[in-house]
């Protein structure tokens, strides 16, 4: 069952449709999409929706309505009774939006959750994790924490058994693009933001990115998922990049350093301290080489030293592939 | 059951001893070490060896003999009858050494394998994978493919469902140290090798490292594990770094590039092409920032773009933690 049928959900349908054989061959898993919920209601077919047909109609509720008409189905209110929910609704970090209700309903119905949107998790993660534990369900959310860049997986699988003492990340491509422009081309914040907006990287209202809120949401989810904290957005000190000046950056560069918007979570005694702020990054920190819209994450561990992961496509297909990965890892 | 009781195996015993509670709390897994095989024979206790006591005696067969004496055990020939084998014997990439027999015996006895040493896998991976499949057992070997640097896991978990088209890695710390010295301090190969030997980074006989054989073993295991090939060392074109000159490197650096010993595996039609050779790495390739004894790996995928992972401690504790991670991932 999929809630929200935007571009990422459509890309996921495409991957599922193309990779059916590969999933059986490699993982002995076969997924059937029985229900998709859009803003106008749910399409449902017990035997599984006809994915190639659905793909002809593009994304959004219009696509669902056209599919329903062609297949002689009627749109109905969402019913939660499948094995898994893939949550792809628009992110609302203020209230959690419809996604929060969808996830709660799905957990009530003992469904595993793969969340691509981050709003619901940011608003109510402790509550949702508690519900999931009671229902013996799992919640995965790679798509919500930097998508194609592996973040959660590294902590969960590659560092299994290790003590992670600190996580540092450049988790927002837009703000990193702006800081890179300021650093490499000596632009002011305003000029760099304008370039980002003109090239379609920053939105008309760039607040979520430049104020550090998007980064804060992501590091919050990572801290709660990997360091065992139960924090919400209010627990995080968040500082954006609006006040970073050309001079700050050029000053840092004298010693080969640079300024990056760093989202970090660190163990301090038994507490987990999470913050987002522009920081001077030393020349020997691998995050210094994360430039433009790229993202990166650095794990500090007691046993394995530091592990840095960078890259990952930031297009909708990358986010959809992150959701597919979570689906596979839930059932392998 | 553990075969080989060198420093890595001892570090693993230490981790298992320290992390017992954490493993139960986090993963609901409890490991019992019943048997350890050294060159003089096996110590065995059905109820589980007394790990803190064993740790008092250091590593090696002497430690096993002292433990046996204290516990009134007799050293016996290896018997394979546990759930899992952790293979830690000295690596022999020519014949596979004792490790090859240990792994075969263990698979015969339906045991899962975690291999820290790479010799047996390099020599006989297709055969061992076939045996494992017949017996429905699994073989994990993070410790043999760059240890604390996540390589296999990234492919297996973080890129689950993706098509990996190419893997490029700097997988040998010693040769990378030498090339970095040549690049940053304008040393000749011979001078840089000498520095590496004097600082204990290169061995007195550095052939495995500088001739690219160690890198070849690792990329071979990754290609066979992640790209589905069934290759052995003879299928790989291997070129070491002995003929790289100061001039080659300085020439590459004019354009901001550098020369690195790159182990690569790429899909070409239905074949997998694996090679190891010194290559010019462009300034925008994230592997260019992997310096000194550090290692790094770059995955090219169809769905998620490129993903780069660097770092990971190269000490025995890091290798032991990689084995522990494999053990957890086998049973979670």
Automatic annotation (TrEMBL), chains A, B:
- EC top class, as a word: oxidoreductase
Q: Which residues does the UniProt record annotate as the domain Aspartate/homoserine dehydrogenase NAD-binding?
A: 4-141
Binding-site list for NADPH:
118
Q: Which UniProt keywords apply?
A: Amino-acid biosynthesis, Methionine biosynthesis, NADP, Oxidoreductase, Sodium, Threonine biosynthesis
Question: Is the Repressor keyword given for this protein?
Answer: no
Q: Which reaction does it catalyse?
A: L-homoserine + NADP(+) = L-aspartate 4-semialdehyde + NADPH + H(+)
One Gene Ontology MF term: homoserine dehydrogenase activity
| Residues that hold L-homoserine according to the record | 203
Q: Where is the active site?
A: 218
Is S-adenosyl-L-methionine tagged as a keyword? no
- Domain of life, source organism: Bacteria
GO terms classed as biological process: methionine biosynthetic process; threonine biosynthetic process
Instruction: Give the record's pathway.
Output: Amino-acid biosynthesis; L-methionine biosynthesis via de novo pathway; L-homoserine from L-aspartate: step 3/3; Amino-acid biosynthesis; L-threonine biosynthesis; L-threonine from L-aspartate: step 3/5
One Pfam family this sequence matches? Homoserine_dh
InterPro entries (UniProt xref): Asp/hSer_DH_NAD-bd, HDH_cat, HDH_CS, HDH_short, NAD(P)-bd_dom_sf
Residues in Homoserine dehydrogenase catalytic domain copies: 150-328
What EC designation does it have?
A: 1.1.1.3
What family does the database annotate?
Answer: Belongs to the homoserine dehydrogenase family.
Per its record, how is this protein called by name?
A: Homoserine dehydrogenase
Gene source species: Niallia nealsonii
